[in-house]
Amino acid sequence: MFFSGDPSTRKRVDLGGRSSKERDRQKLLEQTRLERNRRLWLRQQNSAALKIQKYFRGRKVVEVERAKVREQFYETYGKHCQNVDRHCFGPDSEFLRQLIFFVNARNINDFSILVETCRLIQHFVQDSGDVVGLFAGMDYLSNHSLVVYRLKRFSFACIQAIHHNRYQLKDQLLINGEESSASATILRQALVLLLDPKLPWACKTVGYLMQRNVFSLFREVILTARENMDGKGSSGEVSALEHVLACMISHVGQSPCICSNVDPQWSFSFQILTIPFLWQTFPYLKEVFASRSLIQYYTNQMALCVQNHANVFPTDTLNEFPGYACILGNILETTSAALSQPDCLFEMALDLAAVTTFLLEALPPIKSSSRESSTVGEDDMIVGDESVEIILDDNLQQQITNAIDSRFLVQLTNVLFGGISTAHGLDNEGPDDKEVAAVAAACAFLHVTFNTLPLERIMTVLAYRTELVPVLWNFMKRCHQNQKWSSLPESFSYLLGDAPGWLLPLSVFCPVYKHMLMIVDNEEFYEQEKPLSLKDVRCLIVILRQALWQLLWVNPSAHPSSGKSISNTSGHKRHPVEAIQRRVGTVASELLSQLQDWNNRRQFTPPSDFHADGVNDYFISQAVMEGTKAHDILKQAPFLIPFTSRVKIFTSQLASVRQRQEAHGVFTRNRFRIRRDHILEDAYNQMSALSEEDLRGLIRVTFFNEFGVEEAGIDGGGIFKDFMENITRAAFDVQYGLFKETADHLLYPNPGSGLIHEQHLQFFHFLGSLLAKAMFEGILVDIPFATFFLSKLKQKYNYLNDLPSLDPELYRHLIFLKHYKGDISELELYFVIVNNEYGEQTEEELLPGGKNIRVTNENVITFIHLVSNHRLNFQIRQQSTHFLRGFQQLIRKEWIDMFNEHELQLLISGSLDSLDVDDLRHNTNYAGGYHGEHYVIEMFWEVLKSFSLENQKKFLKFVTGCSRGPLLGFKYLEPLFCIQRAGGSASAEALDRLPTSATCMNLLKLPPYRSKEQLETKLLYAINADAGFDLS
User: Fold this and answer.
1) What Pfam family does this protein match (any one) (predicted)?
2) Is the CB of residue 573 less than 8 Å from the CB of residue 586?
């Protein structure tokens, strides 16, 4: 605002630190660079303009010259070739030279001349029968260069004429019949004549045509012709176009052959075989292509493209007809014939497996008509940044699934494994290169097949009609023993990269062997040791356990949520290694769980063989927390963790829930008034009225004896334990009619319970809640359930091998049918089963119309499994469902899933072994003057040890309210067992008293008896008095 007194102007300062001279220098350099680029662009522009002008002038001159030659041709030979005779086709004539120089497929007059020329060639050949003499005269050797040049140019001109005029000729393109006068037919018949493989110029002519990419022209011709067919297939006659293609593909790969290699993108494989349903139009071409030499050549060509990951598929296909799917369907249709030939080569089978694996990997999953369990998710095609779902045409899906049938699978595995012995070689000998290649090819193909096709169509075939399981097991066993797993060949490296060599074999072996175990019976597995010996099964358990631990804990998948997406338009899926890791983790855990079930039925290996070596205290602490690796392992493969550790986790989870419940409802109490002689009715009426929240809370019980008098004792937990033991004994008593027992006295729901109790399903819901409450409170109850019913608590399906525990006689009859050597239809069995409940017989069909379906040798396996399913699953489905609903009110499914059926029975009832008196003594406290070395205490433990198991259980019930001890030992009894001195002094009156107890505190009040005999007499009287809590 005011003059500061300084007349000078301030100097501008560049904060960038550069002087104005430097800025000017940078600006000058930038201007110079731009000017240089502009001059370069002008030079390029001028050069391009000169080239265009040069080409244009050259083409213009050529067109002028062609016009002149065309006029000369007309003057000499006529516009309709009326002046042409057979000598005009000889080497000395100008007829063919002029024709191939000026002919233009777009010119209608030239097209007419070309057609007429082809007609004349056929006419002259028919007259003389000498094709070579017509074009070469008497001396082919001296004129062969000229003849070959003319004929390969003439042949290409004919193909171009058909291609350029395909829309005008679309009605003629697939016309059959040699006598046809249609222009397209005449051109194609001339090509057939000139491309005969027996002619001396055939090799160079076919090579020239392929270099000119004629298969791409034929592709457009065929697609145009099929648009006009209205879905009709071949009429049965061989068309000339089919003959042309047959001539060309038959030449390739023949010896001697001097054709140069052609870019695979323009080859027959990727131009013609990618046409949907090609063989419907060209059945004769299918026969030609299916010959061993041709299919071997083309599969090898495609296999090389697979190794190079070349994107060679045409881009003119519709979304529902992608090229990789069409070529897969066409190849698979023809391979069966080639594989069935006795001289089929091992190398061809390897190439075929590589190609089909690559193409199947690109397919989206093909859904089955029936619902099945699968590890495959949804697949999307990724194009740029957008996800486009690929849905194949239904007929194309059908073509692929029909082609991969039982015959194809048997043939492919027979060729691959034909030279591999399933007998065990020397343990120190690893698999050779051929065996590694065969195993890799078979496993890669089947792994991708499992992810793509419906499994029920192929599993039984692989399990029982191929040598897949013994070959893979022999391979895996030797690799395991040598501690060296062979890496995959290069053609399959895109599936696994540098992943361990055991991944791919396990991904195939596990589901197939698991399927076998669902069908084999107990005699086959245990006695005959089929399909693997028990020694081999023990080795397999070790391999699976180590693989699972490696996958789930040591090196888990880095992309657990990455789907089966496809990274580009050629169909390669993202993260194939992670996908295989997840699949092996799933199928290996399923198989190991199934082997554990077999071991529980009849032990053939120690249970510790299923436990991982790396489970420690840190792992257990992590397993309790959701979201950790250890917790994921607990859910997916709980058998890797020792049973005692899982029980600790389970009890800690229950304790956590109980603590939260107590914190929310400190003063809530549910009090039951129970009459001992009406315990079931009173418990049902009062417990059924409780909400799920109340069931989790504390329940206190007051007992009334048969006289209606309230029993002595305040429920601090002990009376409730006594109530739970008594109510479960009454409710699950077979006399009540809700449960039946097997020959081994194991309980399962009575299928005829509805005939006895009108509200039987509500009772099963109540019983489920009752059992859950016992487990929730940590109370062991003496209820031996049948294994197949415990499976229902885990929501599992029962199979034939579970039937002996229910009906051993029916099982023996079914096994007799399974191994029956005669004609089963003579036994007059039908797909029906007779139920006999309380003298009432009902007949049920196992299949719709089963009364009219006779059991035969072909369907006997289906009959056996349907009968097993009816008895083990269908008959008790309603009872099991309602029981499970009540059970899951308190016990979550994820808690139960940690245990198998055998372990679940231990959770419910504890060990059936004798009571461990030493463990109880080691975990006992003393009060009132007693101590561990007191003479009364010494006598007490000697007496207790001498009791029978029944009396020991009665004693335990007397002091704790439950006849079974804690599952993990008396260390976990809360509170610890305590012996307190009762009666004060050792007076006669005190010594005459009986021992008493306080079950809520696990306390025994023991007078100081003077002799062992007196102590034993008083203690036995007390525990057998059945006086309820009057002795408390």
Assistant:
1) HECT
2) no
- DSSP structure string for 521-569: -HIIIIIS--SS-HHHHHHHHHHHHHHHHIIIIIS--S-TT--S-BSST
- Please choose, from the candidates 725, 746, 750, 726, the residue with its C-alpha nearest in 3D space to the C-alpha of residue 736: 750
Alpha-carbon distance of 680 to 793, in angstroms, equals 23
Alpha carbons within 13 angstroms on the beta-carbon side of residue 2 total 2
Q: Give yes or no: 978 in active site.
A: no
pTM for the model? 0.80
List Cβ neighbours of 464 (8 Å cut-off, separation of 6 or more): 516, 519
Helix (H) or strand (E) holding 1004: strand 1003-1006
Q: Say if residues 406 and 465 touch (Cβ distance below 8 Å).
A: yes
**C-alpha R_g of the chain:** 43
Indicate the pairing of strand 977-981 with strand 924-927: parallel
Question: Which residues on adjacent β-strands are paired with residue 996?
Answer: 1005
Sign of the four-CA dihedral 356, 417, 512, 577: negative
Residue 253 has pLDDT above 80, yes or no: no
SS3 835: strand
Distance CA(1027)–CA(676), nearest Å, equals: 11
The percentage of the chain sitting over the pLDDT mark of 90, rounded to a whole number, equals: 41
The residue whose two tokens read 């065996």 is 435
Q: What angle do CA 109, 113, 115 make, to 5 degrees?
A: 115
Question: What is the C-alpha to C-alpha distance for residues 132 and 201, in angstroms, rounded to an integer?
Answer: 9
Cα–Cα distance measured from residue 26 to residue 28, given in angstroms and rounded to the nearest whole number: 5
Binned at pLDDT 50, 70 and 90, residue 565 comes out as very low
Q: Are 504 and 472 in contact (CB under 8 A)?
A: no
Name the token pair of 216.
């791409």
Report the C-alpha gap between 653 and 367 in whole angstroms. Answer: 40
Full DSSP string of 228-272: TTTT----SSPPHHHHHHHHHHHHTT-SS--PPP--GGGSHHHHT
**Tokens standing for residue 73:** 């041709």
Whole-angstrom Cα distance, residue 509 to residue 446?
Answer: 10
Q: Point out the least confidently predicted range of 9-13, 101-105, 197-201, 286-290.
A: 9-13
* Total residues found in the chain within this entry: 1032
Only one residue has tokens 């070395």, namely 933
* Lowest-confidence segment of 373-387, 759-773, 972-986 by average pLDDT: 373-387
DSSP 13-54: --TTS--HHHHHHHHHHHHHHHHHHHHHHHHHHHHHHHHHHH
For 143, 149, 239, 479, the CA distances from 890, given in Å and listed in that order, are: 97, 89, 74, 47
Cβ–Cβ under 8 Å, residues 496 and 503:
yes
Would you place residue 607 in the very low, low, confident or very high pLDDT band (cuts 50, 70, 90)? very high
- Residue 481 burial (C-beta neighbours within 10 Å; 0-12, 13-18, 19+): middle
pLDDT (tens digit, 9 = 90+) per residue, 133-181? 999 988 888 888 999 999 999 999 999 999 999 888 888 877 765 656 7
Judge whether residue 851 has pLDDT over 60.
yes
User: And the tokens for 477?
Assistant: 């066993």
State the chain's mean pLDDT as an integer.
84
Are 690 and 741 contacting, i.e. CB atoms less than 8 angstroms apart?
Answer: no
Lowest mean pLDDT, pick from 891-895, 997-1001, 1020-1024: 997-1001
Residues 6+ apart with CB under 8 A from 59: none
Of 117, 101, 32, 97, whose CA–CA distance to 63 is shortest? Answer: 101
3-state helix, strand, coil in the chain (%, to 5): 60, 5, 35
Distance CA 528, CA 508 (A): 24
Q: Which is the catalytic residue, given 305, 326, 510, 1000?
A: 1000
